[in-house]
Model the fold of this input.
Amino acid sequence: MNRSLAIIAALAALIVIAVLPLWMPPFYTRVVQLFFFSAALATAWNILGGYTGYWSFGHTVFIGIGAFASAHLVTHLGPFGSGPWSMVVPVLLSGLICGLFAAILAYPILRLRGIYFAIAMLGVGQVVGELVTNISWFQGGVGVFLAAPVPQGMPPEQFFYYLFAGLLILCLAVSFWVRHSRFGYALLAIREDEDTAMMLGVATERYKIAAFVMSAVLVGLLGAVYGYTVGYFTTSSVFRLDFSLNMIVFCLIGGIGTLFGPVIGTAVMLLLTQVLLSGFLDIHLLITGVIVVAIILIMPGGILGALRPKRRASASKAEPAAKVQS
Amino acid sequence: MSKTILSGRAVTKKFRGLTAIEDVEFDIPEGAIYGLIGPNGAGKSTLFNLITGYYALTSGEIRFFDRDLASLPTYRRNQAGIARAFQISKPFPALTVRENVRVGAMFGKPERTNFDIVTDEALSIAGITELADRTAEGLTVGALRKLEIARAVATRPKLLLADEPCAGLNPTETEEMVQCLRNVRERGTTVWLVEHDMRAVTSICDRIIVIDAGRKIAEGTPREVVNNPKVIAAYLGTPVEDGN
Done:
């Protein structure tokens, strides 16, 4: 019953997503496209940050690497076919490169826990950005071109709308699988108490790396496609601290560690910043900040956490004082 | 006597200059309930930490079914069949009791089975089936201890190391915990427990090992140990019936 309901809802959502851009004005198509992109990023971040408890403050590094990898692949080795299909190889390879980078990075950096991991990732984002700018081969300073092979007769915003919709569905599918698999239980156990998880037989090292790589690959794919949407970019347009922060904020607002929390958080925040506050450009950041603080104070578990009926804890019963037997 | 499940030879652990465990020997027969007692700081928890691999041995050898444990990392020792229930409960706080136990069921052994059945069984052995859907945070001390046992049992261990399972429990809860440990043994799991509650220890243990200042000072049946002058001097203070 519940299951068939979920399937019907998913099908309805798919149909709505498919027909929406056919009558929506281009501005809104672009807003929804941005929503898909941001929600997919947050969902990918959530696999590492939400399920595993490793908060990365530098996930933009994978957007940057994904975008630059695609541009260089196309420039030096391309084209990979013609028309929209020519994106497939560079985008997939870029995801792969991000995965490899994450796997190598994971070895030293996942030994750090909590705030130290967060700060280290912040550093990684900065350092890689600097390298891409200053090593002239990467051309991060002058910028690189990545022409989008938009199909003839299709507005570009529609094309990318569908691409990002597909990627969001992919991210959600991966996140759903993770949450309900044995792998996901390992990640939750690591988040809750890594030492105890190890003591219960969880090969923590391996699972952490897997979650990190998985998250990096998804963000890398998104970064590559993002590169195509902008067409020309420098280091500062893809290695962006606000990308990293948005992933975290959107997850916090919607409900960190839940399947749909990142999507809901993104929807709420984009609705506020892009639509409702678009008339108050000079003060919209101020209002956004106040709203973020308010939501986090009122709903520490995010929107989904506040909606969920509280699972009864047994704290109400006073604990019997520890007695020494005599 | 049956087969030896766990044996230690000249087990020694030094932290810099401090010798925490020195030349301790033990042979735990399969199917037994063994006790480990000694004053605070005697090295009981350190010994358990050496067995689970949380600390590395300075010298000596620990064998589990004739297999040297030295090269096995912690999670592999668990998979080999050594589980531990902590003195200070370490639940996964945001997960439900059932999810907590399920982690043990899923990762305690490399092979896949029906995790639901293993989980339910472990919950019932520990007597916390009715708490299954509560989150672990906010459980009482007694319930948390049982959760520790359930989670350890779910890993389907051959040996359960229980670190002060009765500490801080009231007499009723202690009674329940003793019964719970008996249930664990019924299933064929060997139990080795550290415990200060002498009434609990003497009522369920087949044999007791006593350590003091890192050295083994006695081993025997509860009656022998309780009447051993060395044990009385080092630990009990006055004969019998008194915990502390």
Notes: The two ends of chain A are 57 Å apart (CA to CA). Strands of chain A lie at 144-145, 232-233. Chain A touches chain B through 30 residues (CB under 8 Å).
